[in-house]
Amino acid sequence: MRHTYSGGMRARYQSGPRRERSSFKHLGHLRKLLPYLQRYWVWFALAITGLVVHRIGLAFVPDFTGRAIESLEDPAIPPNFFWPAIGIFAVVLVQFIIYVPVRRLLRRIAISVTYDLRKRVFNNIQYQGPGFFTKFNTGDLMSRAVNDVSQVRMFVSFGLVQITTFLITLVIVPPMMFSYSKSLAFATLIPLPFVVITGFFITRKIYPYFMERQEAMADVTSFTQENLTGIRTIQAMAQEAQEIRRFRTTATQYTKKAYRASRFLAYMHLTMTTLTAISPLIVLSFGSYLVLQGDITVGTLQRFLGWLLLLAGSVSHIGWALSLFFSAAAGSERIFQIVSHQPEVQDQATQSANAEIEPSIDIKGLSYTYQDATEPAIKNIDVCIKSGQTVAFLGRMASGKSTILKAVVRLIDTPRNTIFIGGQDICDIPIQRLRQEVALVPQYAFLFSASVKENVSYDDISREDELVWDATQAASMEETVADLSEGLRTIVGERGVTLSGGQKQRSTLARGLIRDSKVLLLDDVFSSVDTETEERIIRGLNELRADKTTVLISHRVSTARHADYIYVFDDGKVIEKGTHSELLARGEHYADLEAVQSNQDRDQSRRARLIRKLREIEQPTQEDIERRKLAG
Fold first, then answer.
1. How far apart are CA 290 and CA 181, in angstroms?
2. Whole-model pTM?
3. What is the C-alpha R_g of the chain?
4. How would residue 12 be classed by pLDDT, with cut points 50, 70 and 90?
């Protein structure tokens, strides 16, 4: 159901449909923070002790003032204002000595807790699989790690302190009041239960508003992050004005939800402050009556006013403190959705991390279906790659080639007993060890906002320049690096914005080559490289990796023909396999593809046959159409 906002400020910020009220079950999310607070329990206990001492000192100030006034009121008593003044000065001095370090200590604890939380969030994200990043986008994760964690910091450094201060004041002040006048103490504390009950009922409505506000902030963060990432596309298509309108819509939604939360906070603060103001009226009216009746002294009336100031100040902040509790509870719920999310790929290795791994790959009956997909990406794949071989996977897009490479390094949850490296099931090899021995160069080149050297030697930036130059030369990147203003130390910008697509692709290839791993998986790394450069790189690869295993994915026959063995994929299955010459001799799909790509006139019949096949694939049959209708 959509909210309707029209017709002036009040109408635009309607509260919308009925929401679930806040309750203690929502505050239960704060229990998840206990392990993080327990790490600093000694320092926290020390800070609470400091707050107790500080509050006790403040409670004695009205007593000192009352004694001075009583000595001036009664002619029979010698004036006594020196020692009460010394007492107040001592309290102020102790307050300065204790309170400032206590506040700093509490802030340090809050910062430490949020630091631990951010580390936990970031660490857990590092091990997540594709399903996780489908569910949570980058902007949302950033919002949880920054905005929601900040709500927890406010709760630790202010919310807990305010509630603790209120409880300490409630323990110290009322007994001191009763010791001087039971009747005035009872009358003074009459509004207190009403204030607490009112605050409780108001805060019951707050939690959903805080949750909506933080989710709306996540939407703003997500939109901004995606917009800035695609800014070149936006500018190239002249869509700046449209993006500004979209951002205005997203930001307006956040503003509306933030306004609702702020409105409730303001309403709560006003209500509780108004109720708290009843107590001074009682003290002044009923207390003055008791003074005139001779039941209490003017000094006692002054004491009650001072204690009331302490008590009312603590009570008036309960609403704000409770709002911090519920805000932190909403943030904790969102944070621990990430922290408690189990990685899709679990490391259940049984082999020793030091066991030798031979660079042979056997894939037996591998099938895999992505989350929420209706069809398997790959179906019953069998592949045998011997040590030292260079093997090519050829096929059109979405035929399952990249999925196989992801399965080999367990970027997806590879089924057990389907992939073996050196005769060992990869599920029995520690994931970190597996990915050290098997280097995957992904299809989409990604560079960090760092220097060329730091990008190429990303896994070990302490490598010597000579090794980095060798890798860039093997990737046919040496001329590009030489032309850069600072050579290897040139900063390439965010996502390598200063480099072309082909240069970025060769940089990531160099990143894979410098590792000199036993198995190298190249996922279509020549798609942005011209044919001449591709030929030069592949010849270099064959020399560099003569005794190592290399698997490369490509759409080009010109790339695949250099391999020792070729697997041709289509619709998630292996439809042909063999050497380049064997596949050409068969005259089937591979030969047809070679004819189309080489544009040979003598093979026009093959080209026509392949085009017919592609059209049959692209155009669904009547049976397919009916099946899709039934599926909805």
1. 10
2. 0.74
3. 36
4. very low
